[in-house]
Design goal:
heterodimer, A: mainly beta, 3-stranded antiparallel β-sheet, 11 strands, B: 116 residues, 50% strand, globular
Chain lengths: 107, 116
């Protein structure tokens, strides 16, 4: 079955600390993965997609097919990174979302 | 600028009433989606549409229906609202993959529905 797992409901770090939000997936094919972010009182928006191999707001995510993972990383967290983060897997034109991880960055 | 809007933004209703949540997009996207967001469950797909007159059931479609009479709108109807349907509802739209799009889904601001 196609599934996205985000094992952490909440991740709390101090400003300047490294951040890793975990995402594992189950998919019988060539996966296409995304990270979406929802800042407080804002709508959900795309943060990055694995096919672009880009860094957005200092965040990167590498697809590891051997470990079926797509963890989101940032070397130095900022307070403005506090938000809800969702990992998503494409299934035709649909997306399968994980349960989300709330990142809290303390000053 | 193209956008996607939802109305109402907040709604309180009673058990058993019919409720319709509106979603309107001006991206001219063929694909439209309805999700509900609940703590511990993330976003779960309710219904989706790949074009006019096309509707499909998602993961949690029981008690919900949609219709697609034009490209811009995908209203979500709760036939007989239940307390378990208290949630935040998000509408989204995207290009078809076949159109060369990246399949980025653009989300509306959400509707907070409370069923008493």
């Amino acid at each position: 079955a196609q599934r996205v797992t985000q094992p952490e409901k909440l991740l709390s770090v101090f400003k300047g600390a490294p951040v890793e939000l975990k995402c594992n997936y189950s998919y019988s094919g060539s996966p296409e993965l995304f990270w979406y972010v929802q800042y407080s009182r804002q709508r959900l928006q795309l943060l990055l997609r694995h096919i672009s191999r880009e860094s957005i707001k200092g965040f990167t995510a590498d697809l590891n097919k051997g470990e079926t993972s797509f963890h989101l990383k940032k070397p130095f967290a900022q307070e403005e990174d506090s938000a809800m983060y969702y990992c998503a897997l494409r299934n035709t034109d649909k997306l399968i979302f994980g349960t989300g991880t709330r990142l809290q960055v303390f000053p | 600028d193209a956008e996607i809007t939802q109305s109402p933004r907040h709604k309180i209703t009673e058990t058993g009433r019919q409720v319709t949540l509106a979603c309107h997009q001006t991206w001219n996207h063929n694909n439209m989606f309805w999700y509900r967001q609940d703590l511990g469950h993330g976003l779960r797909l309710i219904h989706y549409s790949y074009g006019v007159q096309d509707t499909n059931k998602g993961e949690v479609s029981d008690g919900y229906s949609v219709s697609r009479s034009n490209t811009e709108d995908l209203p979500l109807t709760l036939e007989s609202a239940a307390s378990s349907q208290t949630s935040v509802y998000f509408c989204a739209s995207s290009e078809n993959i076949g159109a060369g799009g990246y399949n980025e889904q653009f989300f509306g601001p959400g509707t907070r529905l409370t069923v008493l």
